[in-house]
Amino acid sequence: MEIASDKIAIKVKDQLVQGHEFTIQLQQLFSQPGSDLGPAKDLVAKILGTFNDTISAFDSFEPISSSSLVTAVEGSQNASCDNDVKLEDSGDSRKRLGPVKGKRGCYKRKKRSETWTVESTNLEDAYSWRKYGQKEILNAKFPRSYFRCTHKYTQACKATKQVQKLEFEPRMFSITYIGNHTCNTKEVTPKIKSCIHHDEIIMDSEELKSPRLTTSIKEEEEKNHGSSTESDLQLVWQEMLLFEEEHHHHHHHHEGTYGCVETSASINGLDSTDLWSWQR
DNA sequence: ACCATTTGACCTTC
DNA sequence: GAAGGTCAAATGGT
Length: 280
Fold this sequence. Notes:
The protein has helices at 4-30, 38-61, 152-155, 228-248; strands at residues 115-120, 129-135, 144-149, 160-166, 169-178, 259-262, 276-279. By secondary structure, the chain is α+β, with helices and mostly antiparallel strands.
């Protein structure tokens, strides 16, 4: 076994794990009462996400000819999706209210993905989410909201998050991230048609025809009411986003096409005014 | 007309 | 069987 590369890999992973640990400690430090660094927390969340991603990448294809594998598979899924030959009418005693359009559900067994939780006053991170559910939770005053990545179907991105208001600190949310994004968030692409072979079924239907979105960020004049600290935070947050952008594709010119749109998502009927979604 | 959210039903997990 | 997570029809917004 020529383990040269294996050794390196192990070392790298150890370092990652350590960095992960440190970040968690930092996160816990933040959650001490008295500090209100929302944006920093979100940043921490993202860092953690990166670590999780990398670490689990290692875990997933672990060379390991040896032992100690963790029976990771659990692929069994008795999801009853397979044989469609099943009856689908008459005999079923189940109550089906609406028009039966086909089998609903057909869930697959979930692969445990990385999860991590942060607490923050603003619900935004750099990704765009779509709400798909809300549930009352036992012994909790506030319901839990469920979000998935906007690009779940166009790009098969598995990331989701759950948001719930903290009972004793209603301005704060507990945000649990599940899985990491695999979508290209900025992938609207210049669309060089010339090199596309012509039957792309891919169809990323988001052409954003709304002309008013293209007005760039001249909305500096914040709409929040006087609260200077709030706006400061907002600005810091924006800067962080831009910073990140630049680092993603090194000095990409023409980054200014982001528009900021207020969404009407509401948690518990009480919509949070600091809910923003960034779109291109 | 399209797209996001709401909301109760449906499904899984414990 | 209860609690939590997900689906999708209905609804609402632009």
